[in-house]
Amino acid sequence: MRGYRIEPGEVETVLRSVPGVRGAAVTARRTGTGTMLAGYVQCAAAELPRVRDHLADLLPEHMVPGLWAAVAALPFTAHGKLDVAALPEPLPLGAGRAAVAPATELERTVQRLWEEELGRPAGVETSFFDLGGHSLAATRLLNRVREATGIRTGVLDFFRRPTIRAMAAQQPQTEDRQAPAYEEGTL
Fold this sequence. Notes:
By secondary structure, the chain is α+β, with helices and mostly antiparallel strands. It has 2 domains: 8-91, GMP Synthetase, Chain A, domain 3, CATH 3.30.300.30; 94-168, Orthogonal Bundle (Non-ribosomal Peptide Synthetase Peptidyl Carrier Protein, Chain A). The chain has helices at 8-16, 48-58, 105-118, 135-149, 155-160, 164-168; strands at residues 24-31, 34-41, 67-70. A 3-stranded mixed beta sheet has the order 1-2-3, with helices on one face. β2 (34-41), α2 and β3 form a beta-alpha-beta unit. The N and C termini lie far apart (44 Å).
């Protein structure tokens, strides 16, 4: 996925090591924006953000599922294999939260670009990654936002503060701005 070879069993092993997780399964799911990892975890639904954060501390970003579902028990076929067809529809972690509406025209513009990239509604205070975004989609989004608004967000800044509100709070830059001239004798 996205140029990486991912073994779902490796992700499942790490998921099962997270405190409070009784069982886990990981599959690839097709979405409107591409293929994403889906994590099915035997734990309380309220625990999913903590489980995801714990997993993100242990694995590279491309191995952390973008879609999640809490399950009471994992379904298995009569032959003991995971019954993928019986699994519930996984969702991005931010999909169930109430969305905060944009307060400015710039926030509305950025929100529209996010929603086009993600293929789903986005509140201004919800994390891009909680809505199912990933690093490749983030790069595309940053370029689109720069072209449409002049906002230049660095990738590291975006990973630290991945919300519409944080992005729109940055000062748009015009193309004709020039770097300050170098003065001899200064560093």
